[in-house]
Amino acid sequence: MTGGRRVRGARGGINALLLGLVAAARPLPAQLPDTGYAARALSALATRLAADPTLPDSLRRLSAVQIIAPGNMIYAAWLDDSSIGAYIRVTAATLHQLPEARCAKALRPDRTDSSDLDRLLPYVDSSTADQWAGVLERIVRARARPSGGRVAADSEVRALDRAVVAALEPPDRERLVRIAQFRPPDQTDACWAIRTIMDGMAAVPPARLGPVQRTLLGARLRRR
Questions:
Q1: What's the number of domains the chain is made of?
Q2: Residue range of the domain that includes 175
Q3: Would you say residue 183 has pLDDT above 60?
Q4: pLDDT by residue (tens digit) across 64-120?
């Protein structure tokens, strides 16, 4: 059996693999973040939205904290393909700037650790923080005027999972198989796997990535 087939056989595909890795990884100490620039970028965004008369009052009143909260982030499912591509690319860039201890927990689905963006933004550089501000603004505006787009069928989601794995260099594909098979991974392996998969997703053309991510993000919105 090839490495690609083994990875694809994991229950739920790539997304289940990511969540399994971050839940199982053994902890290591994390470096201290710097909250300054990210806080200023978010404050400027909140001010800009508050001054925009084209937005409904409920969205103009969003604070910086509310803009990065899960209650706003789940509306990424309403973004167009290009904006979803930007969302995935900045997520991938963020993972590369986190210390391993934080990276390995960055996509955890619970609210007890670093699943919220406010725990990740303090680690990123100014360019990435500005990209996040741009994506977050698109999310808020999508709530006012959803642009949306096509939603992928489950078969398309699985096909994209397979394509991302197949595009890896053979050594990377084999390493991913080993990490998936022998748990719990250490923080280094868990972080590497998350970064590798998200980099692969970020390289997918938006026209193909958008419908798939809209399906996955929309599932979170429906569970709200």
A1: 1
A2: 3-26+34-223
A3: yes
A4: 999 999 899 989 999 999 999 999 999 999 999 999 988 987 765 444 443 478 888
